[in-house]
Structures are given as C-alpha cells and as structure tokens.
Amino acid sequence: MTGLPLAISLGDPAGIGPEIILRAYQQRKNGGQPFFVVGGFDVLHACANTCGVDCDIIAIADAREAVGAFDEGLPVLVGSDAAYTPGSPSEEGAALALHSLAETVRSVLLGQASGVVTAPVSKSQLGKVGFDYPGQTEFLAAVCGLAPEDAVMMLAGPTLRTVPITVHVALTEVPVLLSQELIEHKAMIVDAALKRDFGISAPRLAISGLNPHSGEDGQFGDEEARIIKPAIKALKAKDVNAFGPVPGDSLFTPLLRPSYDAALCMYHDQALIPIKALEFDQGVNVTLGLPIIRTSPDHGTAFDIAGTGKADACAMIAAIRMAGECAASRAHP
Prior knowledge:
Layout: E1 6-9, H1 17-26, E2 35-38, H2 41-51, E3 57-60, H3 66-69, E4 74-77, H4 91-109, E5 115-118, H5 123-127, H6 136-143, E6 152-156, E7 161-164, H7 174-177, H8 180-198, E8 204-208, H9 223-237, E9 241-246, E10 262-265, H10 268-279, E11 284-288, E12 294-297, H11 314-331
Parallel strand pairs: 1-2, 1-5, 2-4, 3-4, 5-12, 7-10, 8-9, 8-10
Antiparallel strand pairs: 6-7, 6-11, 11-12
Helix pairs in contact: 1-11, 8-9
C-alpha cells in the first residue's frame, strides 16, 4: 500500500456506480488502500438512502484530507453534483460523470492520488456533453499526452488476463486492422506493464490465432502465417517470451491457462468472452501503458437495476484492490 489514496470517479450517477462505490467502502478490509470519490456528495447520500447502504459519507475539500478521513467514512471531494435519478440518465448526470473523471485524473497527475479507479459511464450520454472519445481509455491516453494505440486495455481476474489487439471495431474490419507492427507494439506494452505494475519478472505471453484452428496451414486464412507468426518471431528477438499462434478454441482451456500470464487476442470478443464467462464478478479493466494507474470494474452502468439495491460490488472491490497493488508495485519496484 502507498501513502497516497486512490481517486474514484463517480461514473454515470443514474447507473450503479454510486451504489457499488458505497458498498466497496462498506465491505472494505482493515488495512486496505484508502480511497476518495470525486464529486457527487448529494448523489451518494441519496443513493445510500435509496439502496439501503449503511455508510457514513464525509465531505472533504482537498484530496490530502482523504487518508485521515477514510476510517470515519467515505471521503468525497465536494464540488460538482447532480440529482440522483437511478435508471434515468440525464445530461446533468453526464456532465457530473465527465467532471468527476477529469478531476480524478488531475488528482493523480498532481501527485495527490496514487491511481484512478473509474466507475461505469454511458458513452452515448457523455457524447451529449461534448465527450469526443470512443471511451474512457482513449480519454485517459489523450490527457496523458499519448496516442490511443499506446493505451492498452487488459481484462484481469484472479486466474486470467486477456488483451484485445483490436478493440471496438466491426468484426469485418479486424483482418484489415491487424498488422505485425500492431501486435508487436501492444505486446511490448503488456510485457513492460506486467513487470512494472504486477511484479512479474519474466511475463509469458500467449498470442492467439485469428482464424479457426489458427488457419490450418492456410486453409482457413493466411493471417497467422503472414502477420501473427512474424510478430511472435520479432517479439522473441526482443527477449519477449511470446508463443503461438494458439487456436482461440483451445487458448482458454484449463490445461493451457496456467502456461501464460496474459493472452493477447486478435479481437474484442475473443478476449472478453472468456474473462466474463470465467471471472465476471471479479473482472477488472486495467489500462496498460499509461504513466498513471487506471482500473475499472469490467461491466457497464446497468441502468436497469440502478437504485434497486441489487448491484454487486465485487468487481469494483477487485478494481480498487488491483489499483492499490499496482500502485504498491510501482512504488517498490
């Protein structure tokens, strides 16, 4: 654990973000990483009452007050706020979500927090208030002065880590976007991040194939021979312990999962289906390659159950725990 708290963004206040933050504080373990929420003091109070969460909430005016206040209640950096309208997103709520996100990043960049944990947002709602990014990951990359491809999304659970090489694109675009350079670039970022943030001295990277049976010697496509195998060869020449291409239908079997520290997959669903099927309640979205630490629960806003008291905080708890562990790893390499 570091001496600095984590900064938590509120997410869309009409979603389950406020509830899972409150429950994460309520279910905290003694000696856990302190954290504070940016904005939404009234939202959190209303959510606690609506969802029946017994949680003291403490207003703070400065992030430096968070550690001292954490044992007494959930510290909330006061400022922006909105009405609590669970299940009914609004532009007012989206503006609060965007402000909270921006200020959490600012607190880390100013050295007031050790990392960022982002609650779920609605991309369509953010778009209505001027958010011009595909998602929070691309926003964080831009704020940190990086190109979008320098921020790599990894989904992590207790026993599995997966990385999509291509992310939010149509499946028909994947073969066009794949390149040896792209695979090498993302694999190098993953290798460095596993060393720096997860304390794995010699990461093992499994690289998936794109086509059924990894192409079956060209019968079902040539991307393996033309793109993926040359990328693996180049990575090995750079002392990255990469192997494959492993067929997608066998990469996540119980026999193979212990043989790698992260699986690099060619497209979104190839990476996300296994993590959500196997470790949904504890899945964490980690952004690799940033100068700051960022994690997020691997689920959405769940507007349909917001305000009902049914939200499960396990993924938020896991995201907070992982951000704290990554911060400690960077502080004590």
